Amino acid sequence: MEDKSLLDRGLFEALLKDGKSLLEIARLTGLSYTTVRKYAIRWGLWKPRSSGKRTKMREMLEAKKEDIIDAYLNKGFTIKELAEIHNVKPSTIEYVLREWGVLGKKKGWHKCRVEVAKRKVSFPDKKQFDREKTAEELWNLAIERQRKLEKMDVRQKYATIEVSTPSRYIAIVFLSDLHVGSRYCDYARLKEDIELITSNPDVYAFLLGDLYDNFVIPDMKKTYDEIFTPSEQVELCLDVARKLGNSLLVLLAGDHDMFSVYMADYSIVREILSILDCVYLGFGGLVTLRINDRVEYRIAVAHRYRYNSTLNLTHTAKRYLEREYDADVSVIAHGHVADIEEAPMRGRYRIFIRTGTYKLYDRYLALKGYNEVWSVKIPVVIFNTREHEMLPFLDIRKAIKVLDALNRQGEK
Q1: For residue range 204-252, what is the model confidence (pLDDT) as tens digits?
Q2: Are residues 186 and 97 in the same domain?
Q3: Per-residue pLDDT, 285
Q4: Tens digit of pLDDT for each residue in 42-77?
């Protein structure tokens, strides 16, 4: 250990008055600089320079901040020259320039003494905007655009349809899942059924989605079994709509109809609505059918719904009526295998329907093990126009024969 007795306070004071530095005193006494510095501080004979940000040197530099920055940026002075002028180390000038934002701050900058190239860049015509004002304008724009889009949206959840007819009975055919374009679509049967609907003034139709195959999404190309291109399919679907004409009361969108909306914001529904006068319920809704201002029926329809069962096909239609609407008839499409059932719910009998399809085979569905479609079955409900009476049929042809017979009988 060092012999601290060699450091005499009186001697130390004399050496300091003689102008000796702590390092020189350490050499003269044979002690370490650290020991000399410690005793000097303890005796109050030497005060270390403050480590705070506001030392006299820093205060002096802060007072000359504008002059230093101007000299460095505009007058060409180097860091070394500025250090000599202000009697400080170049590292001190570099430190304050970085602190003032004149030089970029870098990790480990204090170890780097390479002078940063000086430059001055200005943007006299830079476009500026008031963020707060712009945000307020965007809010107003969003609200206004939302209102305009709402006016353009013809989709509705509830619709009232009034029918005036002298006939005792009318029928509504629930068409869905035509899948025009598929090689497995029964085109002959579809054409015949449309003619059957339009040839009878007492027959109306609901078109409940999946009008065409429309496999335009790239990762669905593996499901192609089509004999028409998507644009050709559109033409056939529009012709179906034109042929149905005033017989079509309600239109829904299905999964396949939405493929082109996802890919290109094109909707076949909009084109159909531009040529026909019918209500559009989006993916589903409730129709109040009022006949001759005398009798009223409520029909809930949807392209698809939850709670599907391959063992109880109308299960989803029951849950739809139970959870969404109080209706006389509940109709769900999408499943391809048709079924119809008259069953009690909440105190009275109602009709539950799963619609069929004209696409008798689907490789994708067959691979997934879904129920096979054995034949085209198009459900129909006959409605009495004078009293509350509904007659359900699974096959359109049988239903229209019964409809004709009932109306002829009513004429007698």
Answers
A1: 999 999 999 998 888 776 556 788 999 999 999 999 999 999 999 999 9
A2: no
A3: 97
A4: 887 776 665 554 467 777 888 888 888 888 888 888
CA torsion sign, 404 to 409 to 411 to 412?
Answer: positive
Quick check: is 176 in a domain?
A: yes
Check: CB of residue 358 under 8 Å from CB of residue 179. yes
Task: Classify residue 128: in a domain, yes or no.
Answer: no
Q: How many other CB atoms are there within 10 angstroms of residue 83's CB atom? A: 17
Report helix, strand or coil for 148.
helix
Q: What are the tokens at 340?
A: 């119809």
- Joined together, the tokens standing for residue 401 give 């024969």
Is the separation of the CB atoms in 303 and 255 below 8 Å?
yes
Residue numbers of the domain that contains 173? 155-411
159 and 12 within one domain: no
Whether residues 211 and 323 share a domain: the answer is yes
Same domain, 78 and 184: no
Adjacent-strand bridge partners of 229: none
Q: How far is CA 412 from the centre of its chain?
A: 60
Residue pair 379/355 in contact (Cβ under 8 Å)? The answer is yes
Beta strands in 150-262 (DSSP E): 158-163, 169-175, 203-207, 248-251
